[in-house]
Amino acid sequence: MTNFFKLFLLVFICCITSCKKKETEQPQTQASTQTLIPFKEIPFELDSLENELLFTTNQTVTLYASTDTINSQIKQIDKAPSRRLFVTGETDTFYTVHYFQYGSTPLSYQGYVKKDFFEKKDPYSLDLVNLDEIRYSNLKGIYNDQDKSFSKYGTIKLVSYDFYRKQKNKLASNFITHASDISFNNETKTYSFQTNSGEQIDVLQHNDTEEGMPTYLLKGFSTALQRYVFEVKEDGNQYYAYYSKRRSDIEPLYTSSLPVYNKSNRHFAQLYNDDDVGSLFIVQSLNNDFDFTEQLLVNFTNFKVKNESVYWISNNAVVAEVYHPNQTDDSKSSYVLIEFNI
Questions:
Q1: Radius of gyration of the chain (CA)
Q2: What are 128-154's pLDDT values in tens digits?
């Protein structure tokens, strides 16, 4: 083989190798220069959004700019109070979300996350509600509308139904027994009893001749209060009245709900729904004249309470069945433990 032919063959082989190499590299070059689908920026506005998502994992999750997971911009997000996601649509695999990131450089994107790592927040769940928040308080006569947290007086937290069920009967809280020394005149619709000092007291059950008059129903007698207890209904409202058996000059007491009694420290507790916001928690003691003395009043803002669900479990703690303030009824319940030091 001549030197000329060898040189020609070598040049030919090099040309073929070079062409194959270019053919192989060309698709990679195209893919690497392809523009990724960017995130769509949205206004940082949450007021009209519902259906918040909650992380079901503590691992980092990928937020995609589109459902094309190969050609989308991505952002790694994790479970943190500074990050919130709201569902605006969904497919079999993805949630379409509005993503908000708080902080010194806030972000707000439309994006997509895989359903496997999230669940829709229950709109009536109290898990993410600030139970400590209060509107005002009154400690032994000192009114305070500046401190907005219950932490000044104690703690409040969610507990399980099993805890509530086991604890609620721990202490006897009933302070009303059968009243045997009071009579009822069916003709005059009047309850009558004698005080310890000999005066007769009449309590009209209902006045049929006048509209809007209250209706009294005897609940029983309280030895702790030395009073007869009546349930009163008036203009669609219900409250309780307590008439003293000791003397006729002792004014009746009134409460918006029926308290629960702790015999150990002679304290009464009430937790009932406020007409304006949330619920009212009231702790009262008894003075030497068997009258209520208010120790603490707190207006919790972020939950309502189910009627007659409050129980003492110690000298400084109660449990109660509560529900979200946006609920129209109490069909879905949660349970709280309130501990206080006053």
A1: 35
A2: 789 999 999 999 999 999 999 999 999
Q: The tokens of 83 are what?
A: 């990050």
Closest CA to 290 of 197, 228, 216, 210: 228
CA–centroid distance for 293 within its chain: 29
255 token code pair:
């409460």
Do 179 and 228 contact (CB within 8 A), yes or no?
yes
Instruction: Tell me which amino acid residue 54 is.
Output: L
116 three-class SS: helix
The rounded distance, in Å, linking the Cα atoms of 153 and 297 is 10
Closest CA to 112 of 78, 83, 73, 59: 73
The predicted pLDDT at position 211 comes to 73
Q: 331 or 268: which carries more pLDDT confidence?
A: 268
d(CA 274, CA 322): 13
- Residue 37 DSSP symbol: B
pLDDT attached to residue 19: 44
Report the predicted TM-score, pTM, of the whole model to 2 decimal places. 0.71
Which residue carries 């969610």 as its tokens?
158
Distance CA 273, CA 238 (A): 12
* Residue 305 identity (one-letter amino acid): V
Q: Is 220 left (phi over 0), alpha (psi -120 to 50) or beta?
A: left
Answer whether 85's CB lies under 8 Å from 118's CB: yes
Q: Give me the mean pLDDT over the 211-226 stretch.
A: 92
User: What pLDDT digit, counting tens, does each position of 17-43 carry?
Assistant: 444 444 333 333 334 457 999 999 999
The residue among 284, 316, 282, 285 whose CA lies nearest residue 300 is 282
Q: How is residue 192 annotated by DSSP?
A: E
Q: Are 268 and 296 a contacting pair, CB within 8 Å?
A: no
CA atoms of 159 and 170, how far apart (whole Å) = 16
Arithmetic mean of pLDDT, 98-106 = 93
Pick from 220, 145, 128: nearest CA to 180: 220
